[in-house]
Amino acid sequence: MRPVVVPFFISHLGCPHRCIFCDQEKISGSRTALPDTQAILDKIEEFRASAPGRQLEVAFYGGSFTALPEEVQLKLLGAVQPYLAGGTVTSLRISTRPDAVDHAAGSLLKRMGVGTVELGVQSMNDEVLRLAGRGHGGRDSEQALATLKELGFRVGVQLMPGLPGDTLERSVASLKRVLQDKPSFLRIYPTVVVAGTELAELYRHGRYRPLALGEAVTWCKELLKLARQAGVPVVRLGLQPTEELETPGVILAGPFHPAFGQLVESEICFEVMASLLEGATPGSEVGFRAAPGRTSDLVGQRRCNLRRLAERFEVRILKVREDDTLGRDVIVLEGPHGERFRSLADR
Ligand code: SF4
């Protein structure tokens, strides 16, 4: 069973930059303030009481943890040490910027029991990074990844397709470069325009056009397929909906959707179902089977996958049903001439 995450958002703290898209407070839904020791202990106790017997993971999200003064890092991580030693907290994770990672910073985290580091890479393309005001290049991300892996961390990489100057080709190339360094997992957040950021100004003056929702789904579908082929899990696709983000006027434009990941999964299922239907006799009656929990991905939002398939292949789709003997990535077509199957991982 996965540990329960005890999250602390240290939005923008420690960060020496202001990327053009960044308003960490709105994105995380949390006000900028460092938790003091008592606040950390109280929250861990609260989670321990609400999830008895479950393992806990303490996560310091947002900001650039390793850019905080060393004494602050030690204070935050130090507060968790008794729980780590006692086994209540079984893991610790932080997120940071690539150029705030070197051997000394990694060694401090290691000494304090941090197991996972998430790197805000966003893109590996130097032009995209420059336009986003990141203040570092792709080479810094490569070095940070290599250093953290050498020190034995689980390393997560965050990417933001759709930044100014980005193209599908650049996003794909960024991911391929990241995959060469074999991160442990990925988070992919298509760029949205948050009020109050420099990106919002560019957008307002017509100097930035965010990806449309359909475009972002298409880009992320390609990225997800590549990551799957490389065996690297994508643990999040699209920003987590929060009350703050969903407040009118906070997201000005861009491909924000509360179920963005499902839109992408559904589009991959559509591709696979279409490939299974190639050569189907017009007018024939067919059905699909997939693992439990996959039906909505196959059917699509408002049944759009079934509608598009029926129109394109002129078939009648009689049923989509669950089959607990199938692996999560397999789709089976039941047609008049028997069954065919294909894996989502093949696409
Ligand atoms: S590095 Fe992260 S916290 Fe700092 S400005 Fe950029 S996105 Fe925001």
Write the layout of secondary structure elements.
Elements: E1 4-9, H1 24-28, H2 37-50, E2 56-61, H3 70-86, E3 89-96, H4 103-111, E4 116-122, H5 126-131, H6 138-150, E5 154-159, H7 168-180, E6 185-188, E7 193-194, H8 198-204, H9 213-229, E8 234-237, E9 251-253, H10 260-277, E10 285-290, H11 295-299, H12 304-313, E11 316-322, E12 330-335, E13 338-343
Parallel strand pairs: 1-2, 2-3, 3-4, 4-5, 5-6, 6-8, 10-11
Antiparallel strand pairs: 7-9, 10-12, 12-13
Helix pairs in contact: 2-3, 7-9, 9-10, 10-12
Iron/sulfur cluster (SF4) binds next to loops.
Domain Radical SAM core: 1-233
Cofactor: [4Fe-4S] cluster
Keywords: 4Fe-4S, Iron, Iron-sulfur, Metal-binding, S-adenosyl-L-methionine
Structural overview:
By secondary structure, the protein is an alpha/beta fold. Helix content is 39%, strand content 20%. The strands form three sheets. Strands 1-2-3-4-5-6-8 form a seven-stranded parallel beta sheet. The protein has a four-stranded mixed beta sheet with strand order 11-10-12-13. A two-stranded antiparallel ribbon has the order 7-9. α3 links the parallel β2 and β3. The protein contains twelve helices and 13 strands. The chain has two domains: 4-258, Aldolase class I (TIM Barrel), CATH 3.20.20.70; 264-343. α2 runs parallel beside α3, α7 (168-180) packs parallel to α9 (213-229) and α10 packs parallel to α12. It binds iron/sulfur cluster. Iron/sulfur cluster is lined by residues 12, 15, 17-19, 22, 24, 63-64, 97, 120. Iron/sulfur cluster (SF4) binds next to loops. It holds the Pfam family Radical_SAM. Its cofactor is [4Fe-4S] cluster.
